[in-house]
Amino acid sequence: MSNNSKHNLEGKYEPKEFEEEIYKNWEEKGYFKPSMDKTKESYCIMMPPPNVTGKLHMGHALDCSIQDALIRFKRMQGYNTLWLPGSDHASISTELKVVQKIRSEGKEKKDLGREKFIEECWDWTHLYGGTIEKQQRRLGASCDWERRRFTLDKGLSDAVVQEFVNLYNDGLIYRGKRMVNWCPECHTAVSDAEVEYKEEASHLWHIRYKIKDSDKYVEVATTRPETMLGDTAVAVHPEDERYKDIVGKTCILPIMNKEIPIIADDFVDKEFGTGCVKITPAHDPNDYEAGLRHNLEFVEVFDDKTIMGDLWEKVKGMKAIDARPVVVEELEKIDALVSIEDYTHDVGKCERCKTTIEPRISEQWFVKMKTLAEPAVKAVENGDVKFVPKKYENTYFSWMRNIKDWCISRQLWWGHQIPAYYCEACGHIHVGKEAPAKCEKCGKTEFRQDEDTLDTWFSSALWPFSTLGWPNKDAEDLKMFYPTNVLVTGYDIIFFWVARMVFSGLYAMKDKPFADALIHGIVRDAQGRKMSKSLGNGIDPLEVIEKYSTDALRFSLISGTTMGNDIRYLPEKLDQASNFANKLWNAAKFISMNLVETNKIVEFRDENYINNNKTYKDEAFKIEDKWILNRLNKLVKDITQNINNYDLGIALDNIYAFIWNEFCDWYIEMVKPRLYGNDEKDKVCVSYVLSEVFNTTMKLLHPFMPFITTKIYRSLNCYDNIDLMISEWPTYNESIKFEKEEIAVEKIKEIIIGIRNIRANMNIHPSKKETLIFVTEKYAKEINDAKEFILKLGLGEELIIQNNKDNITDNAVSVLSDEIAVFMPLEGLIDFEEEKARLEKEKTRLEGEVARGEKMLSNPGFVNKAPEEKINQEKDKLANYKKMLEEVKNQLANLK
Ligand SMILES: [Zn+2]
Ligand SMILES: [Zn+2]
Description:
Bound molecules: zinc ion
Distance between the termini: 60 Å
Structural class: alpha/beta
Helix content: 40-55%
C-alpha cells in the first residue's frame, strides 16, 4: 500500500476545497498558541490593531502576509512564538459613523446623552465589528485568537488609566490653554498628524489700517478677512527698513474702531504681501505664539462651530464663511479695502471628514514630550530599536527631534474618558483611577469627571505591553514576550504610532517595545496610483482569494517586492502565482504516483544518512542526485538568511526559481529514465531524493504559501505524521559537500541547452538522435555518470567521451563550455542539400530585407519626415535582420 492512501492528491488543484478546512484544523489543534516552553527562546509580534469595524484592504493583506510569514518561520525554527491580534476602538471614525446613524434617525448626540450614545457605539461595534477578524483568518493568519485584545476592553482600559496617572504624577501631563487644530465638524481637537494639507485657490485681501494721529496707513494682506474683527496687533519684521519708524505706534482697527499696537517680530515674512501682517491670536497658530510673546489680548471671533460671536452686530450668529463677504463689503464701504488678488495656498483639512481645520484656543490635556522623546531618540540612535529599511529612521528622527507637546484630549465620547475629577465645590483637579472620597483641598465630596476622552493613539501607544498584561508587572506573558521582536507596519504611521510606542515603552517598561520596526510600502495599482474609493481602483483581497486562492494572493503581495518600497499591484502576478501552484500540484502528483513504498524510502535514508557525521554515504547517489542535494542545501542556507534579513521577496523568488527551474525542469526530467527503468534499488534512491528535496522545499515555501504546502506535505511526507506548520525548519548542513558534482552538472546543463539550440536552429526532427562526442580531461567520470540523462535530455543516441579531438568529422557542430567540448556530427541528422537550399533561400530573403531597410533609412525624405518612433522601429528591424542573416551565414558555413 502506498504511503499516500490517507491524503491523495487527486484531480486538479482546487484551493477552495482545502484552504478553509486546513485553517480550521490548525486552529483546532492549537498550533497558533505559543508553547510557553521556558527552555525555548521567545519570539513575539504584535499585530497592528485595525479598526474594529474596518474591512480588510490590500494594505492589511500585505501587513498580514509579512507577519504571518515571519511567525511561521520562527515557529518552525522552534521558538516560543506569539503573534497577538486585536482591534482598535478608533474613536473618531466610529463616533462619526454613529453620529451619522442617529442623525438619520432624527437624533443628536446631546439628546441621547453620554450613556445612551456609548451604548449606540457598542451596538455599532458589535454589529460591524469582527468582519476584519474573519477576513484575517481567510488570509491564513496564524495568530493566537485566544489572546486577542480590544483597546477598550477592561485590561487595556486599566492600562490607559494607569499610564495617564503615572504621567500626571511625574509632571508629564498637564492641562492648559493651547491653540489646537480644531475640526468644527467632528467637534474635537485633532493632532497635527491628523491634518492633511490641500492646495486651494483663494484670494488675498489687502486691507489698510490707519495709523493713529497720522495721515498714514499700514497695509496688511490676509486670506481670512472675517477674522480681522479679532485682530489685536499688526506686526512687521524688526529688520524691515520700510517700517522702522512705525514700530511701537498704534493703529486703528477698521469696523471695530479699536486701537491696536504695531509690533516687531521675527516670525513675519518680509516677502509676504506688504511685509505687514495682522495678528489674530485666537485664530492662527503663529499669531497665537506671537500673542503670548507680546502679551496681546486673545479675542475670539467665532466659536467652536465657526459661528460668529457678538463682536459686530451685523454678522452675529452667521457662519464665519458667510460673514466674510459682509466684512469685505463693509471694508470697501469705509475705504479700508485696497485690493483683492488671486492666491493659492495650502489649507489644513481634517483627515477624517475633510472639513477645513480651524486653529482654536481651548482647554486641553497635553503630554509633555521633551523628556519622553529624548530616550526614544537615543534608542534608535544607538541601534536598540532598528528601522528596516534604515532610511525610515529619518522620518522618525525628524518628527521626534522637533516634537511638540501632544494634545491628548478629544471632545468625543467613544473612547477612554480622561481620569480627572473636578471638585464641584472648589474646582480642584484630582487625577486617579476613580474619584476620591473627598476633596483634598476643601473636603467636599461632589466630583465631576472630565467630559473628554483620550486620543485613540494614547491607547495604541501602549499596545506592545498593555496586551501582555501590564500594569500587572508579574503577568506571565509580559515577562515572557516583552520586549517584542518586530513591529510590522506601513511608513504612513511612523509618527502616529511607531514613535509613540517607542517612548511609551521606554517610559512604562523601561525597555523598548520591539527590536525591529519593519516598514513596508503601500500597495498601489498597476499604474502606480494609490488605491482609493474615489478612483474605484481598489482591489478587494477577499475577491482575489475567491477567484484565485489565499496562497496566490500572498504570493502576489510578497514576490518581487522590497521592504520599504511601494508595491505596484500587478494582476499578472496572480496568474504567475496560480501557474506556480499548479506546477507544485502537478509535480507533487507525479512524485506521489511514482514513489516506491514508504518503508523502503525510510530504510534507504537510515542506511545512507550517516547520523553522527550528518552526511550521506557518497556511493549511494548518482551525480544528478548529488547536484540537487547540494543545491537544496545551499537554498536552505539562503532562504533562512533572507528571511532573517527580512528580504521576504528575495526568499520567495529564490524558492520559486529553485522549484520551477532546477527541481521540476531539470531534476525530475533527469531522473525519469531511472524511475521508469528496471533497477529497483535505484528507484528507491530516486524516490528518496525526490521526496527529500520536495518536502524540504515545501517547508521553505510554507511561510509564504501555507495552504498548498500543507496539503502537499500531508501526502508526501513519509517519515512522520507531524503537520508541516509545526515541523522543523530545515537547517544548512555543512557536512554535505557535493561541490564538484554541482559544478559538473551545471556545465552539463549548459551543454544540453546548447545542443537543444543547435537542433532548433537546424530544424532537426526530434526523432533523429545524434551522436555526442565529449572532449574533456577533467570531467570524464562525471559525464559518464550523467550519460543516461544527457542522452535523454539532449536527444542523443550515443555518447562518446575522449580526451582529444581525434576522429571528429569536419562538419560536426560544437558546443563549448570551459573544460568540456561537445561535438555533434551532422551526418544522418539532416539532409545536407535540402538544408543548404533552405538556408540559401532564407539568406536571400534576409538580404532583401536588409537592403530594403538600409535604403529606407538612407532616404532623407523618410528620415526627415517620419515620426521618431517609426524611424526607431525601422532601425530595430534592420538590426534584427542583420543579426539573423549573420546566423544563417554561420550555419551555412557549418554545413560546408
Ligand atoms: Zn473632522
Ligand atoms: Zn474641593
